[in-house]
Write a structure and sequence with these properties.
binds 4'-deoxy-4'-aminopyridoxal-5'-phosphate, Aminotrans_3_PPA_site, 14 strands, PyrdxlP-dep_Trfase_small, Aspartate Aminotransferase, domain 1, 455 residues, four-stranded mixed sheet, transferase, Aspartate Aminotransferase, domain 2, seven-stranded mixed sheet, alpha/beta, 2 domains, 38% helix
């Protein structure tokens, strides 16, 4: 390693506070500093090169590294007009909104922000304001599902069903209520025939307990991502949609991970015939070449905020400065063109299915693999100590597996990260250009590591 890179690592160690990391470990071990990426591969300051099956560590560099086309589009836009406050329109914001909505039949308006948490906060404010405007403030509760994650800010964390993330940050915002998860592998009802329907009924029970007149919306991930890649069981979504309709509850789908082709359709909800009222997007919108997120609503939601002559106060009282940066929609537009031109939605579906089947084969060979789940290129391997009891492995085991994969040139997750967040699930979220050969490398490397561990 040259001295410049050694200095870089020391600067990082001495001055940077990494997210979601226990820094005490970095006294003994060098921090990992990434310096360059191309396609599906990334290189660190020590010159190690990896296949990145985590799309940038947090599942967002969907079209891959080193896309000069996106960088050029951002540069050109910044030189032309870098910013104007989002109370006004800009050229790339209008262009991207039109292109995005073509992929989302039934949806009608795009409201811009900069992160997934922020988009979800804005969606909560939309629900709360509708409650004020139409229901005297009574229909203000927002229900969220156990094991779903919706963001890091206090509001979004109040709507998050992961205890490990919430630990130490209470008190939380009032008006957020949890309902049970729908992970069939961890069925609350044992081995039953209609698990999907029973899991959906758990939502209904909570709506009835709280009083339907107090429940404004339910937020869901279409496929739970960070909570352990939970694909919904058969029959779940049709039953959920019926329940939400019956009690006049808005459906907010958080597509921060699943959106923009990650699961092999443009949006995760499009697998299940869900008709959302609100959709939030971030991560893959611009493959993280620029920070951008979106709240997408139906025309009916938008219309709630139009003055009808009687209430001129109805406009949405929300603004964020950086929603006016043009780098976001310029990058998003270039990103969307790449997804279309390179048929990455199809590639994700085809290579994702191939990798899923390879991982299922591994499950028959390795006793540590309890379950393999996922759709497209969002895949999870749940680790257990015993296939019969399904007792989860200690999180150190998952950390060790991720570390051994890294030594073999494969990134499947950070080695200083708590796998408790992921419910002891190894999550694979590769770049959407993944080839069959690269999928083979991922499965073979995991196979080798588990064989070495005799697991
Ligand atoms: N929703 C989901 C489903 C997420 O996975 C995340 C981030 N991992 C967020 C929201 C929050 O997004 P951000 O980190 O951009 O605030």
């Amino acid at each position: 390693m040259d001295s410049q890179m050694r200095q870089l690592i020391e600067k990082d160690r001495n001055h940077v506070w990494h997210h979601l990391s226990q820094h005490s470990g970095l006294k003994k071990q060098d921090p990992m500093v990434m310096v360059e990426g191309k396609g599906t591969r990334i290189t660190d300051a020590k010159g190690n090169n990896y296949l990145d099956a985590s799309s940038g560590g947090v599942w967002c560099v969907n079209v891959g590294y080193g896309r000069t086309e996106i960088a050029d589009a951002v540069r050109d836009q910044l030189v032309k007009l870098n910013f104007f406050g989002s109370t006004t329109g800009t050229e790339p914001a209008a262009e991207f909104a039109e292109k995005l909505l073509e992929k989302m039949p039934g949806m009608s308006r795009v409201y811009y922000a900069s992160s997934g948490s922020e988009a979800n906060e804005k969606a909560f404010k939309i629900v709360r304001q509708i409650s004020q405007l139409k229901y005297g403030g009574k229909k203000n509760k927002i229900l969220y599902r156990e094991r779903d994650y919706h963001g890091t800010t206090i509001g979004a964390l109040s709507a998050t069903g992961q205890e490990e993330r919430r630990l130490h940050y209470g008190p939380f915002a009032p008006g957020f209520v949890e309902f049970p998860h729908c992970c069939e592998y961890r069925s609350q009802f044992g081995d039953v025939k209609d698990y999907g329907i029973l899991a959906a009924k758990e939502l209904e029970k909570v709506i009835l307990r709280e009083g339907p007149e107090t429940v404004g919306a339910v937020i869901f991930e279409p496929i739970t991502a960070g909570g352990g890649v939970i694909t919904p069981p058969e029959g779940y979504w049709p039953a959920v949609m019926e329940i939400c309709k019956k009690y006049n509850v808005l459906v907010h789908i958080d597509e921060v991970v699943c959106g923009m082709s990650r699961t092999g359709k443009w949006f995760g909800y499009q697998h299940y015939g869900i008709k959302p009222d609100i959709v939030t997007l971030a991560k893959g919108v611009a493959s993280s070449y620029a920070p951008i997120s979106c709240v997408v609503t139906t025309e009916a939601i938008f219309n709630e905020f139009l003055a009808d002559g009687s209430d001129r106060e109805a406009y949405f009282r929300d603004i964020s400065t950086y929603a006016g940066c043009t780098s976001g929609p310029a990058a998003a537009l270039a990103n969307l063109k790449i997804l279309e031109r390179e048929n990455l939605v199809e590639n994700t579906a085809v290579v994702g299915e191939y990798l899923l089947n390879k991982l299922k084969d591994l499950a028959t060979k390795h006793s540590i693999i309890g379950d393999v789940r996922g759709k497209g290129l969002l895949l999870g391997i749940e680790l257990v100590t015993d296939k019969q009891t399904k007792a989860p492995v200690d999180e150190q085991v998952a950390i060790k597996i991720a570390g051994m994969c890294m030594q073999k040139g494969l990134i499947i997750g950070r080695t200083n990260r708590s796998f408790k967040f992921l419910n002891n699930t190894l999550c694979l979220c590769p770049i959407l250009t993944l080839t069959h050969e690269e999928a083979d490398f991922i499965a073979d490397t995991i196979d080798q590591v588990l064989t070495e561990l005799n697991a």
